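Before relying on records like the one below, remember that each one covers exactly one chain. Contacts with other chains, cofactors or solvent are not represented anywhere in the record.
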Amino acid sequence: QSRALLREYLERADLPRREDDAVLDAVAAELGDLPLALTLAGSYLAAYPDESVSAYLKALRAPGLLGHASLRGQGRPEAWTKHDLDVERTFQVSLDRLRPEDATDAAAIRLLAGAACLVPGEPFPRELLTGMAAQTPDAEADPHLPDDALRRLLALGLLERAGDGRLRLHRLLAAFAAGALAGKMEGAREALEGAVLSLGYAQDVRSDPRLFRQWAQHFQHVTESAYDREDERTADLCAALDFMLSNSGDLRGARRYSERALAVRERVLGPDHPDTASSLNNLGAL
């Protein structure tokens, strides 16, 4: 459907172009099949027939995706609604509904920032976000806060359900949140790392690795983001990912993280620390 919509816009141009399905599919993938983004992209390509779809795709893949002129309404898009035909402004309308002075909304903002630290557009366990919210003092006073914060994000369209108790943050929304919430990303990333570790420790990967495999890419993404740091949290993430990967059968994949956990603990904790010894033991076992 995304491909058909883009091709319909291309055929409206004065100089019709035949593009391979693969190129149109790649554009749709970059835009996450979001109808508004596809409409803006199609209008832009129709308005500027001298620009190839391949060149447009390359521009979309450059940093600052949401800043591209097409997603800001350049190219005379047809206005089907009364709001600005601008992807970033559309997202901002929903974000502005969250009031930082309200405990639930403040938690929702934090969870949105945390979700933006995961692999964009891929389903993830809801426990990663509820685990983040549970680390705040407000959650201790109100145990329903994590669920209430998630409901706010879902109601505003800033998060979507992905089935089997999982959630998804649209790839364009992830790019938007990373920019709009830049000042909150560091704190959210720290809380997310804690939630990742908690969920990893809670899953009995030795008995059944299937649950872990559903979110392994997110665990790896978060760990890679911390990989170059020299602190205990980095060592903990690498050690936990080593354990999860090795016990789910990926021995080669686990080795890099096993070695990194040992190296960090040797430098940060010293060669005689029990955790360093544990890492050395884990690497030997691996």
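The longest strand covers residues 160-163.
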